[in-house]
Amino acid sequence: TSEKMYCIGCGAELQTEDKTKPGYVQNSTLKKYQEDDSRELFCKRCFRLRNYNEITDVDISDDDFLKLLDSIAQKDGLIVNVIDIFDYEGSVIPGLQRFVGDKDILVVGNKVDLLPKSVNQNRLLNWLQQKSKENGIKSVNQVMVSAEKGTNIDKLMRLIEKYRNGKDVYVVGTTNTGKSTLINKIISQNSDVKDLITTSRFPGTTLDRIDIPLDDGKSLIDTPGIIHKYQLAHFLNDEDLKTVTPKKPLRPATFQLRDGQTIFVAGLARFDFLDEKTNVVFYVNQNLLLHRTKTINAEEFYQKHLGEMLTPPSDVEEFPTLKKEEFIAHDRSDIVIYGLGWVTIPAGSKVRVYVPDGVSVSIRDAII
Ligand code: GDP
């Protein structure tokens, strides 16, 4: 039949084409329903939520995302913005403040478990505050959490209580920041909440939202994320992405460099250190090759070994050429390549960085 059907949980139009979009059901589920229409038909996402208390993310278009932010702008409430601290540029939503109006934004830096223990948490919080400011986000506060390990979730909940002033809470973030993991953690740590979760249609859009009830009758509302297109992840296949993404705390790798030396981070990035002598410390996933060579040989070396010794990337054809940018550190600093990690360089040192065109690099005060 060509009759449109809707999920009775979230109201999304049911479809069997795309798992990543709202309203997805398997063909077999749909068939069973058509044979016996006394059954209740939920989309896969609502089904998982009702049966396993598990939130799964749906992908939406930029356009729908703007509509979503616009509908939030018209409501009263606190915005909780989840950021991946390993991929700030890939997870920040430029213009967020403008889209949501004068609402308060609480910035949550997720995946803190991946940082070495020696990280100065205050510097990291300052950095997050600074980055928020640069992106026009007037954050009322910031907190570092690990959604996966459950670190600082109670602190986050206290901050939410403090800033929401009895209003609803909207959790926003791009995909892959760990927003679903975070919400699942919140649900599992508040056992009384589990049975009360509802899904309901997001007014004015075709998007569904998930409401988690708070004590005073207000809700914590999960919203779908959007994908950023200029993340490092965009240039890599799944296999390569696994090699790049850390699963355990980063371990420092120290190099003592003399005049004219270069370090390759696999085939993904190249650092030419321009000082006579310098000590640098790399913080990237342990699985990634750090290879030292003379700068005069670096170009030839890269051309020769890209996709072989220098992998990832394993797919050289699709990989963009590297673009260079120079940095001078006034104080002890980190050169950050979003989605990859960083290298700490001493005050006064100069470095030329090569990364795939479209991937962002920036400098910050050293966090260790
Ligand atoms: P969403 O798209 O924002 O909902 O993100 P997900 O919750 O699906 O998480 C994206 C990826 O980040 C998954 O591979 C998670 O395992 C991982 N992840 C989420 N939270 C954490 C965390 O606190 N620490 C670490 N190391 N990984 C996390």
Give an overview in words:
The strands form three sheets. This protein has a seven-stranded mixed sheet, with helices on both faces. Strands 8-11-15-14-17 form a five-stranded antiparallel sheet, with no helix packed on it. A five-stranded antiparallel sheet has the order 12-9-10-16-13. Helices cover 27% and strands 27% of the residues. It has 368 residues and is α+β, with helices and mostly antiparallel strands. The protein is globular and about 75 Å long. The longest helix has 14 residues, at 121-134. Strand 14 and strand 15 form a beta hairpin. The structure holds guanosine-5'-diphosphate. Residues 57, 110-111, 113-114, 146-148, 173, 175-181, 225 line the site of guanosine-5'-diphosphate. Pfam families: MMR_HSR1, YqeH-like_C. It comes from Companilactobacillus keshanensis. InterPro entries: G_CP_dom (IPR030378), GTP-bd (IPR006073), GTP-bd_ribosome_bgen_YqeH (IPR019988), Mito_lipid_metab_GTPase (IPR050896), NOA1/YqeH-like_C (IPR048422), P-loop_NTPase (IPR027417). Residues 62-229 form the CP-type G domain.
List the topology elements.
Blueprint: H1 27-35, H2 44-52, H3 62-73, E1 77-84, H4 88-91, H5 96-100, E2 105-110, H6 121-134, E3 139-145, H7 153-164, E4 168-172, H8 179-189, H9 191-194, E5 198-201, E6 208-213, E7 219-222, H10 238-244, E8 253-258, E9 261-265, E10 269-273, E11 277-284, E12 290-294, H11 295-305, E13 322-328, E14 333-337, E15 341-345, E16 350-356, E17 361-365
Parallel strand pairs: 1-2, 1-4, 2-3, 4-7
Antiparallel strand pairs: 5-6, 6-7, 8-11, 9-10, 9-12, 10-16, 11-15, 13-16, 14-15, 14-17
The chain binds guanosine-5'-diphosphate.
